[in-house]
Amino acid sequence: MEILHYPVLHEPVLEYLALSTDEEAVMIDCTTGEGGHSNLFLSRFPRLHVIGIDRDKEIQKKAIERLSIYGERFTPVNAWFDDYLKSAESSSADRILFDLGISTFHYEESRRGFSFRKDERLDMRLNENATLSAATIVNTYAEEELADLIYRYGEERYSRRIARAFVEYREKKPIETSKEAEDIIFHAVPKEYRYGRISPATRTFQALRIEVNGELDRIKPSLLEAIRVLKSGGRLAVITFHSLEDRIVKWTFKEEAAKENPAIRIITKKPVIPDEKEEKENAPSRSAKLRVVEKI
Ligand SMILES: C[S@@+](CC[C@H](N)C(=O)[O-])C[C@H]1O[C@@H](n2cnc3c(N)ncnc32)[C@H](O)[C@@H]1O
User: Fold this and answer.
1) Are residues 74 and 85 in the same domain?
2) If you placed Cys at 52, which of 32, 97, 166, 211 could pair as Cys (CB 3.0 to 4.6 Å)?
3) What is d(CA 275, CA 283) in angstroms, rounded to the nearest whole number?
4) 161 and 220 inside one domain
5) What is the pLDDT of residues 222-238, one digit of tens each?
6) Residue 194 main-chain phi, psi, to 5 deg
7) Domain of 20: which CATH number?
């Protein structure tokens, strides 16, 4: 059997979202992925029903197979989580979880160009029916637009040089693969930046992925809907992987908790981060942060 890492921050997530074992409850896993968190909750809480959202059909297939042992206690939904939550009934869920971003599956197996270590079509779409791909962005966006997005979503200080290099390259031939994009970035940045702690392509690839899937724009509206959908006393947990995501979550929770008649109270005053053991065992968890709120 395939060995899967424990899902990120699984111990604190289980602890903060714990239910009593004889309680019937509903949890919405907004980012089911391969079903790691859902599996933990379904196995730990025998009367829990999980509604598992994911936009990506391919990874969702894996979760459906893995969680089939729970029968009707797991209901998969193929949708963007913001769309799903908008139409969900108010006060209908006991627990809501977001584990934002993409999964190891996307980098390693999806063949969609998420990783600059692989030579794949530059795609990056979670929704196979969407028209905007990473290749469309690098081949059609105006230079300034491209530079702005690499700066905004990648916090890349060489965004202008990278955008210029993309535009110069595509005047000769379209940019089609992840390796081609990585190579263009590598040569666009100063020599001393090429061999740093992270690859010079990391930030630009993050920016492209965020733009393709509208990742950041979906967070705040989804959190507000999630608060509406929670039952009173219900809990909402969000795991983020970079500061752009975390900032949105932190401020949305702060604003909502500071209102005159607040709908939530903040449970984690500071974000919970992985301990040394988890960091060692699961490198991608290094930048993870967990924030939890409770509906009043
Ligand atoms: C970090 S992974 C989740 C991993 C999961 N918690 C596990 O334990 O296996 C995030 C997942 O959310 C999906 N996703 C990201 N943004 C989404 C959105 N706005 N709507 C629906 N699914 C989304 C991705 O396709 C990916 O499978």
Assistant:
1) yes
2) 32
3) 12
4) no
5) 999 999 999 999 999 99
6) -75, -25
7) 3.40.50.150
Phi and psi based region of residue 221 (left: phi greater than 0; alpha: psi -120 to 50; beta: remaining): alpha
For 174-186, the pLDDT digits (tens) are 999 999 999 999 9
Asked whether 51 and 61 are in contact (CB, 8 A), the reply is no
Nearest CA to ligand 1 atom 27: 33
Range 54-58, long-range pairs (CB < 8 A, 24+ positions): 54/78, 55/79, 55/80, 55/81, 55/126, 55/127, 55/213, 56/106, 56/110, 56/126, 56/127, 57/128, 58/105, 58/110
Q: HSE-up of 6 (CA within 13 Å, CB side)?
A: 17
Same domain, 227 and 94: yes
What is the Cα–Cα distance from 264 to 231, expressed in whole angstroms?
Answer: 11
β strands within 137-246, DSSP E: 230-240
Distances, alpha carbon 144 to alpha carbons 4, 50, 166, 202, 208, in Å: 41, 44, 11, 20, 15
Confirm whether 92 is domain-assigned.
yes
Q: Mind listing the pLDDT tens digit for each residue in 54-95?
A: 999 999 999 999 999 999 999 999 999 999 999 999 999 999
Query: How many other CB atoms are there within 10 angstroms of residue 244's CB atom?
Result: 18
Cα–Cα distance for residue pair 132/123, rounded to 1 Å: 9
Of the residues 172, 187, 213, the one at which a domain ends: 213
Mutate to test the pocket of ligand 1, among 38, 126, 217 (most ligand atoms within 8 A of CB): 126
Out of 43, 54, 238, mutate this one to test ligand 1's pocket (max ligand atoms within 8 Å of CB): namely 54
> Is residue 4 pLDDT above 70, yes or no?
no
Asked if residue 1 belongs to a domain, the reply is: no
In this structure, the residues whose C-beta lies within 6 A of any atom of ligand 1 are: 7, 31, 33-37, 53-56, 59, 80-81, 99, 101-103, 126, 218
* 91 is a domain residue: yes
Domain final residue pick, 213, 234, 252? 213
In a domain, 226, yes or no: yes
